[in-house]
Structures are given as C-alpha cells and as structure tokens.
Amino acid sequence: QVQLVESGGGLVQAGGSLRLSCAASGRTFSTYGMGWFRQAPGKEREFVASVSWSGGTTYYVDSVKGRFTISRDNAKNTVYLQMMSLKTKDTAVYYCAAPPSGSPFRTPRKENEYAYWGQGTQVTVSS
Fold this sequence. Notes:
mainly beta
C-alpha cells in the first residue's frame, strides 16, 4: 500500500517562502510521476504541479508558474514543492498525490488520475 506523508507547511508572511516535502513508501518510487494539489477553504481541490518519474518534465497551474518549483529525489523517495513569493491566495491545505499502481511513467495533471493521497499540510500566508 502506497503511503504519502507531507511536511513543511506553516504560517508565513506574504512574499515569504516555504518548502513542502512528501515522503513516499510502499512501492517503487522512481517509476511514477507525482503531483501536488491544494484545497482552499470553501473551494474545490485544484492541481498545483506535477513532476515526471525522472524529474525531467514538470507541469504547473498558471497561478504558480514562476513562483513554485516541483522536484524529486528518487534516492530519498521524496517529492518537494518549493514555494516562493507566496501570496495570501496560496493559503490552502496542500496534498501530495501518486497515480495508481499499473500506471508508471505518466505525469498526470487531473485529480481523477491520482489514486493515493497524503493527509495534507496546512499553508497559511498572512498579509
């Protein structure tokens, strides 16, 4: 069973930075793309970023392009989300996600293409 554990959330002032981490276990990490999603209060969960199995391809939602960077360390079974120039509208619970087993080498961008989710980590950006 795939397990995902996020860390690194917290309270930061607008313009500040945070780095989220997601440690994965339960299957071979290096052959699967990984994603980050977020859910703000009263809103639906939305795609933030995804990274290919090798780390060579990344996708971002337009609102975070140029500010967020997704990366991975396959030796540590960990995916990261470096967030810079944070804005109050970035406040949300951030979730790490992994696609279902049997779908390696893909880099999904839609929520329904992911099967495994972490518990979420709160990011609060104050003005």
